[in-house]
Amino acid sequence: MRGLQMNRWLRMRRAIGAFARARDGAVAIEFVLVLPILVLLYLGAFEGSKLFEVSRKANTATETIGDLVGRTRSVTLRELNNIFDVARAIISPFDPGELDVQISAISIDPQGKATVDWSRKRSGAGTQSMPGLAKGSPYALPPDLKATGNLFYIIVDTRYSYHSPLIHSVIASSLDIDMTYGIVPRLSSIVPCSDCG
C-alpha cells in the first residue's frame, strides 16, 4: 500500500516537473503576442522611410525650381512650364499628379511692403501653368527675409499629398508635405515674366 502511494507521488511529481519544463506552448504564445508588434514596427519603418524620401524629393524640387528661376534674367510662360516639368521629374517615382507648385515673384518697396509682381502655379496632373497669386496683391513675407534688405525675391511653394494604405488606415487619408523656398535673383535685380499677365 505504501509503495502504491509512493508510485503515485513519484508519477505526480514527474508530471509536474515535465509540465514546468515544457516550453513548446509558451514559445507559440510569446510569438503570437510579439508578432503584431513586430509587423507594426516593420510597416512603420517602411512607411517612415517612404515619407522621408518623398519629403526629401519635394524639398529638392522646391530648391531646384527656385535656383532655376533665380539664375535667369527673365522668364516666359514656356520656360516656366518647362521648369514645372523639371519638378515633376524630380518627384518621380512618386506620383507627380500629387505635386502642386507655385512660383511667385515678390517686390518690396522702400517702406518694406511686399507685393506680388507675377505668380504662376501648376496643380496635380495639369500640363500647363495657371495664374497664381493676383498681381499687385500684398504678400506676407517672413520677417527674416524682410530684414535682409533685398527688394526682390522668387518664392517657391510646393505641396505634395502623400497617400499610403497604412497611413490611411491608421492616421489620415493623406499627409501633406509643404515646402517654401525663397531666393534672390543671381544675375539681375529682378526677374520679370514677359507674358505671365
Automatic annotation (TrEMBL):
Keywords: Membrane, Transmembrane, Transmembrane helix. InterPro entries: TadE-like_dom. The chain crosses the membrane at residues 21-45. Pfam families: TadE. Residues 25-62 form the TadE-like domain. This is TadE/TadG family type IV pilus assembly protein.
